[in-house]
Amino acid sequence: MTVQPYPPIAQRTTPSGRTAAIFALITLICVLPAVAIALGVNLNLHLPSTAASTSTLRGAFTHSTLLMLGGILAISSATLSLSRFMVRRSALTSVISITLFWSGFVAVIQALTVDGAIYTARDMENYIPFTWTITRHLNALLILGAGVLLLWPQRQLALLRPGFMFGVFGLFGALALSLLGLASTLDLPQTTRPEAILIRPWDLPALVIFALSAFVIFPRIHRRYRSHFSLALWLSTLPLLAAQAYLIFGSTWLFDAAFNAAYGLNALSSAVIFGGLIFDYIRSTSQEHHLLRTISEREVRIRTMFEGAAEAIIAFTNDGIIELWNPAATLLFGWREDDIIGRNITTLLVPRAHRPYFTDQLERLVTDRTSPNIHSYALGGPFEIVLLHQDGTEVHVELSLAASGQQEAPIFTLFARDLSAQKQMQLRMTQMDRMITIGTMAAGVGHEINNPLTYLIANLDLIQEAEDDEERHQSLDAARQGAERIRRIVDDLRLLSGFQQQPRHQVDVADALEVALRMTRQLIQRSASLHQTLAKTSPVLADEPRLTQVFINLLTNAAHALSPRPRHENRIDVHLLEIDERVVIEITDNGPGIPPELQESIFEPFFTTKPPGEGSGLGLSLCRQIVESFEGSLTVESQPDQGTTFRVSLPGVEADSR
């Protein structure tokens, strides 16, 4: 199942689609009062009879109702906007909530003053238009300032914190109460000129600011923030602009049709913003529901993959505490999930000898990440390592590691693949190759044994024929030397034919190389001269029989690679030296060389250039695997007609002091 992301509003609301339709509808609503006025329709609300007898101003009921409605919608929008800011820290909602609160609070105070609930205005005829003009200018300036601030770089909005917001709300509330209370006690100037073209010229600057907001500032804000709320803010400026126009050019006295139309459009502006917030909440809820469903589906898929993975998957903290453990890990290491969660992976699974290496791998993952952010991650491996089963036995695994989270508190995930069957197969292949090697050298080994055996028998015959004790003792010593040579050859064969893989230990490379030279001496001497330079080197961590097998294979290949020419023209050189704390063994022949296109193929399993029946194609492949298991490398250099050099490089270690 493919889950499609929720489309952004930029894709769902285009100027030629729904947005254009909403603009057209708002514009039509703004024009309808003008049509009604032209047709002589009375826009006053019906005044209840009980209120009619106590009302001191005709039309005050309509005015108060529209003011209160607009004020309540504006304060409700400010509350919703502030609530959204508290959750998402949105710059748009934080700035606009201040403007909405001012506009709504002023409208409610004006409505209550007209009804005499808070203040008793000395000059109500001028109080209503004067306070409209003053508060409308402040409202326009706030809208202009909010728009400019929202178009400013985001880092400038850092001061907009909840405490700051509540402080501004309180300040604006006190300012509204003070301003409107002061206006109710003064003799106010007349701001309406019924006979002039501009009936209320003092309201013209607010009209210009609303026009600037509607056609310049808020379209840009909508392009930046792209939400139903930003679109509603843009749309809300149209009724504000129309309301100012009705008052400036159409309202000749209080509570006439143009006057009521202006207050109705002012309430419409607040309703548009409130509707935009509601739609934004609906959209956010829909997105959250969609996101939760997507997360749930992905969790199911991830859990299915986690539970059904063939590899062991273990997640643990920087302190090594295991947090996740899949069924494959139970099969591989024996521990059940309930028994292992919360315990330390290093002490339970990593042998003491491998813990420094394991820890180094974890530290490298953390330091190698390009970013310390919570979403960054790094991968390491694969590499081979020995871990522990619940019963204490060793398990050969191929390990990959992943790190994620913050650099100071990363989360690690371990992926382990069982190599036991592969190791057994490699061991059998190694043994088969050894047997092939021993079979190939059978004639040479027989000759090596035959010479000291003949020497031994001859000296035993001399012992029988000797006439005095001194002659018998000399023949006996000579016979013992011959037997010792035979014993050494048998020991070499036993070393080479050993089947079980031994743990890595310190090996003197010169000893392993000398065994290989003894085993191949007869093969080499039949076709070439042997030249060797064996320097004293540091020991290496290896398995001596397998390292000896590598040298035997390389020496045998060198002997087979020589050209069919007189023995004195063929040459094999063996060098043992130490360079930059690495022990290097070079075996060079002056044969025809290896073509460049075959130099990497020779290390592939079952690849051979020998005639059928004369090679298994496993020798060099196994040699490279063995050397790399000792953390070394096996490379080849060859030029046509200039010979070939195989180079084994192994890390040296400090010799034991024991």
What does the model show?
The chain is of the alpha+beta class. The chain has three domains: 58-288, Rhopdopsin 7-helix transmembrane proteins (Up-down Bundle); 309-418, 2-Layer Sandwich (Beta-Lactamase); 423-651, Histidine kinase-like ATPase, C-terminal domain (Heat Shock Protein 90, 2-Layer Sandwich). Helix content is 57%, strand content 14%. The protein has 20 helices and twelve strands. The strands form three sheets. Strands 2-1-5-4-3 form a five-stranded antiparallel β-sheet. A five-stranded mixed β-sheet has the order 7-9-10-12-11. Strands 6-8 form a two-stranded antiparallel sheet. A hairpin with a 4-residue loop joins strand 1 (312-317) and strand 2 (322-325). Helix 5 (91-114) runs antiparallel to helix 6, helix 16 (442-465) crosses helix 18 and helix 18 packs parallel to helix 19. It is rod-shaped. The model is unreliable at 1-15, 49-56, 371-375 and 612-617 (pLDDT under 50).
| CATH fold description of the largest domain | Rhopdopsin 7-helix transmembrane proteins
**Rg, alpha carbons:** 47 Å
* Residue share in β-strands: 5-15%
How many individual β-strands? 12
User: What's the CATH C level of the largest domain?
Assistant: Mainly Alpha
CATH architecture of the largest domain: Up-down Bundle
- Across the major sheet, the strand order is 2-1-5-4-3
Helix/strand/pairing category: alpha+beta
Distance between the termini: 65 Å
Average pLDDT rating: 79
Binned, the helix content reads 55-70%
Count of all domains: 3
What is the count of DSSP helices, taking H or I runs of 4+ residues?
20
- Unreliable segments (pLDDT under 50, ≥5 consecutive)? 1-15, 49-56, 371-375, 612-617
Largest sheet at a glance? 5 strands, antiparallel
User: What would you call the quaternary organization?
Assistant: single chain
Shape: rod-shaped
Organism: Lujinxingia sediminis
Pfam family, one: PAS
Catalytic activity: ATP + protein L-histidine = ADP + protein N-phospho-L-histidine
InterPro entries: HATPase_C_sf (IPR036890), HATPase_dom (IPR003594), His_kinase_dom (IPR005467), HisK_dim/P_dom (IPR003661), HisK_dim/P_sf (IPR036097), PAS (IPR000014), PAS-like_dom_sf (IPR035965), PAS_fold (IPR013767)
